[in-house]
Amino acid sequence: MPVMIAITNQKGGVGKTTTAAALIASLSARGKRVLGVDLDPQGNLGFSLGLDIENIHTLYEVFKKQISIEQALYPIEYGDLLASNILLSGVELEFNRPGREYLLKNELTSLARRYDFIVIDTPPALNLLTVNAYVAANQLIIPMAPEILSLLGVAQIKETIETVRQYYNSNLKVTGILLNRFNARLNLNKEVLDMSQQIAQQLETKVFQSKIRQSVLVAEAPAHGQSVVSYAPHCKPAQDFSALVDEILAQIPKEA
After folding, report:
1. What is the maximum alpha-carbon separation in the chain?
2. pTM for this structure?
3. Which of 19, 20, 60, 213 is deepest in the core (most CB within 10 A)?
4. Which of the 8 DSSP states describes residue 109?
5. Cβ neighbours of residue 141 under 8 Å, at least 6 residues apart?
6. Mean pLDDT (whole number) for 208-237
């Protein structure tokens, strides 16, 4: 069975999509079979990895049973991708039947043996789509920016995680908190690091040793339909993401 990693934080602008794209690219570079899942109606992951999200099949059509999940798979440079666009925002209202928390998990079951890793990008909200990601995943990575408001977003995730564990997915584990746009020389960054370590203890996890440094290349990469890992492989953020993947792989059983 694949390792399913959901990238989550209810606050926007913390680097979720950048992290998801970098993990997909870095894992693929290690020879892993990778599926990316864009569960955010903004469709940023698909766009960032080179897809025309307005003119392709999406997860919304899969959930509506209009197409099969195989028909929604698109090959990208780093493996395959399930894309989304603004139509997915209707899921909360349109799907009100029992079991709607399992929409994603049920669909991914048929694909499980094809991949070593499935990386899920989530919306900046604790809504039905986010719960679907938590129910499907066995690991969560929580990116955050070195800002106080970003810390509040992390703290508020705890209740949702506990609810999902209790009712839907007892195997859900928080793999770690990831600090993006980190500058160790700034006092605020040091303060946020200390506070994030306290939150990590509450979530029974850790802050990753790898911290992602800032670079304009991170912002440039999506315009070229690439992750920063392949767009600028020698830049500091790309090196940091590579170190992050080392940390993640070190925690996973060898057969994964």
Report:
1. 52
2. 0.93
3. 20
4. G
5. 5, 6, 7, 8, 19, 23, 175, 176, 177, 178, 248
6. 92
